[in-house]
Design goal:
There is one protein chain. The chain is α+β, with helices and mostly antiparallel strands and about 190 residues long. Helices cover about 25% and strands about 40% of the residues. It has helices at about 15-25, 55-70, 105-115, 145-150; strands at about 5-10, 35, 45-55, 75-85, 90-100, 130-135, 160-165, 165-175, 180-189. The strands form 2 sheets. Strands 2-6-5-4-7 form a 5-stranded antiparallel β-sheet. Strands 3-1-8-9 form a 4-stranded antiparallel β-sheet. α2 packs antiparallel against α3.
Length: about 190
């Protein structure tokens, strides 16, 4: 049987993806030690499932549908740059997200609970809403200080807002040029 690297995500509208792309362009420089996420691959990850047997994909889609069915669309605000584990010691360069209704955090918790029942690994930490734009390369403990300084110049600059009205089941196929994403299902809230 074939397996597919699978994750559950919220796609970004073009205005947020475009603003994120501009942030990357204004921050990156040759030799910065960051693996930047291609703008076409930007999304809000809700849960990474890992290798999923292709015959289990319909069950994954059905489970996500049952979680999303009672939910209503909700709004998110993209507040400006930050980092994980924190801005000053960033290993991951992020955009902070305000979830005023709390529905994003609730959706992620419901997904984690339901998929744990199905045998998928539970997330070790509580879900912290953020958009990942770059990661320090594998040989670095944290991002280069110059990158962090440039990144945090945008900490107070909002990227915009979006309405979340659907989520996706996405297959990730690793190619030489990086991951290629294939949307396997789109589920409305």
């Amino acid at each position: 049987m074939k397996t597919i690297r699978t994750f559950l995500a919220i796609p970004l509208p073009t205005n947020i993806a475009g603003a994120a792309g501009k942030l990357i362009v204004s921050t990156r420089f040759d030799g910065d030690g960051i693996k930047w996420v291609p703008v076409d691959n930007l999304h809000l990850t809700l849960k990474f499932l890992g290798e999923v047997d292709n015959v289990e994909t319909p069950d994954v889609c059905t489970a996500l549908e049952s979680i999303c069915e009672p939910m209503q669309p909700f709004d998110l605000n993209f507040l400006g740059t930050g980092g994980l584990p924190d801005a000053e010691r960033a290993r991951v360069l992020t955009v902070r997200i305000d979830d005023p209704s709390g529905q994003l955090v609730q959706l992620a918790a419901n997904i984690d609970d339901r998929f744990a029942e199905m045998g998928y690994k539970r997330e070790p930490r509580d879900y912290r809403p953020h958009l990942t734009l770059g990661r320090a390369r594998a040989n670095a403990r944290r991002a280069n200080e110059d990158v962090v300084k440039r990144w945090l110049e945008h900490a107070g600059k909002p990227l915009g807002e979006m309405r979340v009205d659907h989520v996706q089941v996405v297959g990730s196929f690793l190619e030489k040029r990086g991951p290629v994403y294939n949307i396997m299902d789109t589920i409305d809230l």
